[in-house]
Amino acid sequence: MNQVYWKWLLGVFKLKRLVKRWYGTRKLDYMKDELHIVTSTVREYVTRANSCSKEPETVAWIESTAADGAVFYDIGANVGAYSLVAAVNGYTVLAFEPAYMNMSSLEDNVTLNDLNKSIACYQLGFSDRTHLETFSFLDSTPGTSQIFQSSMTDYHRSGDVEVKKAALIFSLDDFMALFKPAFPTHIKIDIDGGELALLAGAVKTLAVSRVQHVLLEVEEKDGAVETADAALTKAGFSLSASHRRDKHTVNRIYTRA
Description:
By secondary structure, the protein is an alpha/beta fold.
């Protein structure tokens, strides 16, 4: 390697370090505590760093229902903004995210905020049965939500599949029976099109009275909202609030009746 090329390469990496220092992390827009997230992409810098203003009802739900011994399951955690908020509000958090690039940012964010004792992260997904699956990615940059289980309908997305990756999928009931983790008091579900399958695989778990609160993002399509309401009503919950997320989806908040 000649000297000119070596100096050029050193300059490139010096510039890279400076850019990372300037734009590598950003304060999460959570007013009650100092939290930061890594921002290796524009989406993380703009959208994920502003998660609290994006879903104020989710933050309010986390804060208003916090209790001693609360255990928060963040299913579809993405880069973990709400896991961080739950952790600083006293929850024990289990964060689940099947996308490999989001999982990397999620783990970085937990470490960045010194919350490794409060948040455990697992790279897996949930559905109605335990199996090996393939995920299709329309976007493979950190912070994306443009992924879906390849065996499922493509939700409301459009675009070409950029890459497919293998994934481990559990039913929640199987996961609980096999590993016996801390049992949830709160379950947040945001898995873009897979929520009804998840509920079908969580019948036993949801029937346990320790689960007091569920927040579910669900698409208003083909009776999905009604099906979700029926499943959670049967499990002993009642709807306490509904908030529109976009033209396709709503956040439904359920409380143990």
